[in-house]
Amino acid sequence: MNPTFRFLSCTLLTVALCGASPTSQADSATLTISGRVNPGTCTLVASAVVLDTLRADQLKQGDNALKASTLQLNNCLGVTTATLSFEGTAADGDKDRWKNTAVQGPASGIAVSLLSGTTGTTYLKKGDKIPVKVTGASAKLEIRSGYYLAAAAGVSAGAVSTEITVTADYL
């Protein structure tokens, strides 16, 4: 065989083998990005209220020994209004008051009143939603709470307590 032909054949074979590149493959994926922008928030502070001690014979029908306190919203960011909602156990037969849920030696015939504001007779009851305007970084709702006597008959001395869950939704 002619050496030039053999060299030429090897060179053509090398070019053919080296020049042929394998078929490339591609793959694709879709990147999905999602999120949510929530309204701002505040820190809700509801301090415990300790009612003044009364004797059973000092109670009169209606609200007794109302004590002022405040539901405070602090550190508000991006909030213009907070809606406060109230949940708990309503008094038996009285949807405007809260049941005395004291476990140890509860008083009978007594419910708990919760009123909005420093005066007036607007009761805050189970399911109520109260809007509170936020100014700057804070807001507050003035409230009053106390004993409630529906009728003088059937009252006995004992402990009085209730728990009310206050939830703040923000706009």
Your description of this structure?
By secondary structure, the protein is mainly beta. It has one domain (about 40-170): Fimbrial-type adhesion domain (Immunoglobulin-like, Sandwich). The chain is about 10% helix and about 40% strand. It has 1 helix and 9 strands; from the N terminus they run H-E-E-E-E-E-E-E-E-E. The chain has one helix at about 5-20, and strands at about 40-45, 60-75, 80-85, 90, 95-100, 110-115, 130-135, 140-150, 165-170. It has a 6-stranded antiparallel β-sheet, with no helix packed on it. The protein has a 3-stranded antiparallel β-sheet with strand order 7-3-9, with no helix packed on it. A hairpin with a 2-residue loop joins strand 4 and strand 5. It is elongated, with a radius of gyration of 37 Å. The termini are far apart. Residues about 5-15 have low confidence and may be disordered.
How much of the polypeptide forms β-strand, as a percent range?
Answer: 35-45%
Largest sheet: 6 strands, antiparallel
Helix content: under 10%
* Strands, total number: 9
Shape: elongated
User: What is Rg?
Assistant: 37 Å
What is the total number of structural domains? 1
Q: Kindly name the structural category.
A: mainly beta
The CATH homologous superfamily name equals: Fimbrial-type adhesion domain
What's the CATH first level? Mainly Beta
Query: Unreliable segments (pLDDT under 50, ≥5 consecutive)?
Result: 3-17
CATH architecture: Sandwich
CATH topology-level name: Immunoglobulin-like
Mean pLDDT value: 88
Query: Biggest sheet: strands side by side, in what order?
Result: 1-2-8-6-5-4
The ordered string of helix (H) and strand (E) elements is HEEEEEEEEE
Q: What separation lies between the terminal Cα atoms?
A: 93 Å
Number of helices: 1
